[in-house]
Amino acid sequence: MILEIKDLCKSFHAPRSGTIEVLKQVSFGLLPGETNAITGQSGSGKTTLLSLIAGLDTPDSGAVILDGENLCAMDENRLSRYRATKIGIIFQQFHLMPHLSARENISLPLEILKQDRIGPRTDVMLEKVGLQDRQHHLPGQLSGGECQRVAIARALIIKPALLLADEPTGNLDMETGEIVARLFFDLVEKEKKSLILVTHNPGLANQCRKIRTLDRGRLL
Amino acid sequence: MLWIRLGVRELIKNRGFSLFFILNLSIGLAGFIAIHSFGRSLNRHLEDNLKEILTADLVLSANTDLTPGELHLADQVLGPDTTRARLISFYTMVKAGENARLIKVMAIDDPYPLYGEFALEGRGGKQEIQEWPGVLLTRDTAHALGVDKGDDVGTDAKMPLVLGRKTFYVHDFFQEDPDRSLTALELAPKIYMGIKQLEGTGLMGFGSRIRYYYYYRLGPGVDVPALTGTLRRAFDEKHQGQPRINVYDTRDVNQRLGRVTRYFTGYMGLVSVVALFLAGIATAYLFRGYLNLKQREMAVLMSIGATQWETALYMGCQLILLGSLAAVLAVMISLFLVPVFPFIFKGLIPDHLSLHLDPATIGLAVGMGMAGSLVFCLPVFVRIFGVKPLILLRGSREGGQRTLGRVLGQVMSFLPGVLAFSLVSVFVAGSVKNGMVFVAGFALALAFLGGMGWLIFSGCAYLSVTRNLVMKIAFRNLFRNKWSSLSCFVTIAMGAFLISIIPQIQKGLQTEIMRPEGLKIPVFFLVDIQEEQKNPFIEFMARKDADLINLSPMVRGRILTVNQKPFDGENLSQGSGRPRSGQRGRGRGKRLEFNFSYRKSLDDSETIVQGRALSETPWDFEAFVPFEISVEASFAERYGLSLGDIMGFDVQGIPMEGRVVNLRKVRWNSFQPNFFLLFQDGVLNDAPKTYLAAISQVAQEARQDLKNAIVNAFPNISVIDVTRMAGTLLTITDRLSLSIRFMAWLAIAAGLVSIFSIARHGAWKNANQVNLLKVLGADFNVIQGITLLEFGFIGFTAALFAVLLSLVFSRAVSWYLFDSLWEFDLLGSLVILLLTTGICMATAFMASRKVMNTKPVTLFSNTFDPGEI
């Protein structure tokens, strides 16, 4: 098992309505190379679950065990480094560094981790996402689809154990979304990555091996 | 390196922010660096030229000539390899044609000066003046006396200058005075003559205020400070603890000159600290906007593995780099500012002062730029540790929960700034007390203006309830963006306060110095009236129909003891009875002789502040009770004297004892004969004395004639032209005022940069609102009106409260320093009010012009260029 989610609970305190339980005893596992989609209505807790798995937030109780290590027991700095080596995240709004070129955005995680052979590895990723010709363009000069391809390349370049994607085509038109989704799933399959995909899009969810549905904080 | 590289990249891409940050901080730093550089240049010059300034290694001076025994003692202590020069100096009247004027006689022997030289213009050397009644003077002095009749001036020109009973001629002009005293503080210009030529002038009678100097040039490798100490002790022993001779060396002249210039540079420095602080506020505000903008990027970095510290490093590198660039720019700006100082301080600093920035100053500038940018932005910077990558998923900019630790961290983040500000203030002021008083005053002004600003912008909520669209939106913006409005308000108000306070105080000072004649300010002040001249002089003045006032006897003597303890003439701290630090044992700080007087009733310029009036019954020599003494209040404070103290005196060899019965406040600027110590009637009546007096109510056109007549009839009496002296004082206050205003404009400039950046930031933030208004049909005037009203209101209210604060503050200063003489500078206040409002509106208009001209189509494309902020 590459990922184990055990009895994950998360609640938020709202000033007027008191405590809202967003996740209630969520548990599931993910095998290496397995792809899971998490669907559910707005407010069902999908993004919260994703943020807990990514180690971007801490649960009230429960555990997130990635590659044998409990993320919930790590301090902020260790978590950052662990996340950098084990998890690749793709956001709906791309979140690229606006003043770095496509190439620089892709190579940035390797630079942060002070890894070697940054140039050749970036070239390989650029080729994989088909952006060799656009590598020196800034995000502002790229289309939405190209930006998302840069984000995918950036997430994959560290060869993460787990890939997390939050509505990766949510900000793209249908046609571009389909192209990006095709590329994305091709790469996941080729690289044999484990994936958790959060989406409203049934077409996208159907491309995953398993679909898990969240309803008011519980996995159905 | 990655973080530095990324940081540099970010700064290049955010050129607008970088430029404003650098410009803003550099304006704040420039004044400070310029003053520091000027101070260092001055100190360096003084240190390098101390011997030339003193014209010797060591100097002895006294009010009466040194005896052969005393000179022999000096020769013994100083050793055989010494060269000696002599100078006798005093003020007297010189008459050239029909033009009489006060001058300072410098009677020198041939070896003078031992270091430095006269840069004589013409023929012959200075040795000729020893054998011939010729004088050396500057062309300016000659012009003032009316004897500058061209280049042929010399022995042949025979232009007479009458000094006492003897006629002198202009021998030559000198371009450089070997005695480098601060000329602007001199009472009169100098005339050099041979020491032997004093004979026959009749100017050296009893009681004349003559000073005798002996200059020594010591052999090579001699420890001058040690010899100075030895000689002081030797004279102390010879005079049994009552030294009559001042012994001083280059250290003392350095201290004396440094004190005068520090007085000016200290005030300028404090104003420059305010400019730096205001620039710091604006810098922090700019960084706050930048950090908000970069929050998402920091979260991205964290999401791909950067730790919080690495993210902080990424932003910290940018701050340090910006600070360094600001320092470089500040150094460049200060290169233009520093050459202005010699003009401001002409006559107050030595001529030919070489001004340049040394590596230490540049190092200080870079250090302050780097540290300053971090310190000022620290309260904002700590928010980096609250950034969570979670915002990338949730889309919220909330930096996590507000925990006690974070609140404490936020509070603590202000401490380095407060500490740095206090330390810099103390450093610039040159004393902990003055520095802390300044910090406290500044904090009070800041608190007042901050409080007022808060009330004003809270009140904008009510002002926005109106049907007028422009007012509604403008006041709502001010209310909703309270913090940015407040930081704009405070920076502008502090700058305007500084600019307003200076003319207010100056006006009080001018009024005090130039009071109309109706208030009995004299025209002439007379010194050295001999006792035997008293009655003839009174009769002479009566014949001239002149109003002779306040003819006051003056007796010279020494204070021997206070409450049976020896009085050593050094300043004592109040109450402690101990010398102030840094002054112990310094001969120059000692006051060896004092002038005493007596009068039946107090002058209008005197008020008893403690105790009772002196008894009108003349003191009886036979009565074995101490006589009564009145002590001037500041004198009492300086020497730790209080009511009831018993003081022992030596008045021309006769020991006497008196008791302090009152403390008097004296308005010295009344230019009336006033004294630190007044004795009971009957004590000094029989002592040998001279007289001081004042003459008032002389018509402008009759003044020169009266002066000439006095000099003709009584050549030894010095006539000081009070109007001219007041003019000199005003010139000095003008320069002080100019120098401080010069720095205050830097503070305003720092405020304007912050207005510009805040207006620009605000405009971009409101870009959607502006475009929406355009879509809804609002014309350009309405949109422009909103910006102008918003920033015009800030400028107007800031200037208004600044002027009000300056009125209160200047009133307090006038009450404390100038006996409540205070005049409201209405015109100046109005100019400041209107100018500040106008400048704010114009700056805001220029800053927001680009946004106003954008097309509303951006509402659809949602293109927002963050680099513009």
Verbal overview:
The complex is a heterodimer of chains A (220) and B (869). Chain A is an alpha/beta fold. Chain A has a single domain (30-55, 73-212), classed as Rossmann fold (3-Layer(aba) Sandwich), CATH 3.40.50.300. Helix content of chain A is 35%, strand content 28%. Chain A has 7 helices and 10 strands. A 6-stranded mixed β-sheet of chain A has the order 6-7-8-3-9-10. A 4-stranded antiparallel β-sheet of chain A has the order 2-1-4-5, with helices on one face. The longest helix of chain A is centred in the last third of the chain and has 18 residues, at 174-191. Chain A is globular, with a radius of gyration of 17 Å. The relative contact order of chain A is 0.20. With 869 residues, chain B is an alpha+beta fold. Chain B folds into 4 domains: 1-55 and 257-430, no CATH class; 56-255, no CATH class; 445-519 and 721-869, no CATH class; 547-696, no CATH class. In chain B, the strands form 2 sheets. Chain B has a 6-stranded mixed β-barrel with strand order 2-3-7-4-6-5. In chain B, strands 11-13-18-15-17-16 form a 6-stranded mixed barrel. In chain B, a hairpin with a 2-residue loop joins strand 16 and strand 17 (654-666). Chain B is elongated and about 100 Å long. The two termini of chain B are 26 Å apart. Mean pLDDT of chain B is 79; it is low at 149-156, 572-589 and 859-869. The chains are: A alpha/beta (220), B alpha+beta (869).
